């Protein structure tokens, strides 16, 4: 496995160990304040919300832009402990299903345990790499994702896989982090540490172009939210920060 993916697995497994040690609420306090904290109160209000599954790693609500039908098949890329899967599962019936895929074994194990404990039958959690997915072509009605793509080696490969597993007329909706400004290398390294972007932070245009390249249509940026980077060591860039959380929807026509 490539070193980037090994690092990701170690860092995300450590979040689960940390949660077990200090409790879920304290663990969430330790995540990037500018990204998760402004949306946390909204998370708590979502139907199907399960506190234990929320590691404070999400940055938006891509599922809010989809009207799920009871029999839909849905995929969550980089599902972690399953928080978004549980919220979507609440909107599906027993014929429908949401599958969460994640590269970190400890997270998949945790999500499956939470589903079992809460007797949730329409979720499934799969260990795997979203850049090479273990799913058939044209399988899902919807694919969602929340805060994952700055961790992948190739956004183009990830989107190409997403396009492959979606049914015709299927919809892809995701929230993620992006910049609107070029930073020097040193600053980008700091931002990456602070925001947990292990591989890189892209421009919104990079996402749109990658979606177009693999064949998606009707690409719409639905929402943008500026991130306040307010840790002490980041104050040098607070005033000029051009880091955004955004949500994009695209269709496989
Ligand atoms: C910032 S977290 C977001 C988690 C979740 N979507 C949420 O909202 O709570 C990023 C997740 O992506 C997973 N991940 C990173 N690279 C991946 C890859 N190539 N394939 C599958 N999962 C990956 C990590 O293990 C981690 O759980």
Largest sheet: 8 strands, mixed
Measured distance between first and last alpha carbons: 34 Å
> Which class in CATH terms?
Alpha Beta
Q: Give the bound compounds.
A: S-adenosylmethionine
Mean pLDDT: 91
Describe the structure.
The chain has 253 residues and is an alpha/beta fold. It has one domain (3-251): Vaccinia Virus protein VP39 (Rossmann fold), CATH 3.40.50. 36% of the residues lie in helices and 23% in strands. The chain is built from 10 helices and 8 strands. Strands 1, 2, 3, 4, 5, 6, 7 and 8 form an 8-stranded mixed β-sheet that branches. β5 (166-179), α8 (185-195) and β6 (202-203) form a beta-alpha-beta unit. α1 crosses α6 and α7 (155-165) packs across α9. The longest helix is centred in the first third of the chain and has 20 residues, at 3-22. It is globular and about 50 Å long. The chain binds S-adenosylmethionine. S-adenosylmethionine (SAM) binds at residues 8, 12, 55, 57-58, 78-80, 83-84, 101-104, 107, 129-131, 146-148, 151-152, 196. Residues 8, 12, 55, 57-58, 78-80, 83-84, 101-104, 107, 129-131, 146-148, 151-152, 196 line the site of S-adenosylmethionine.
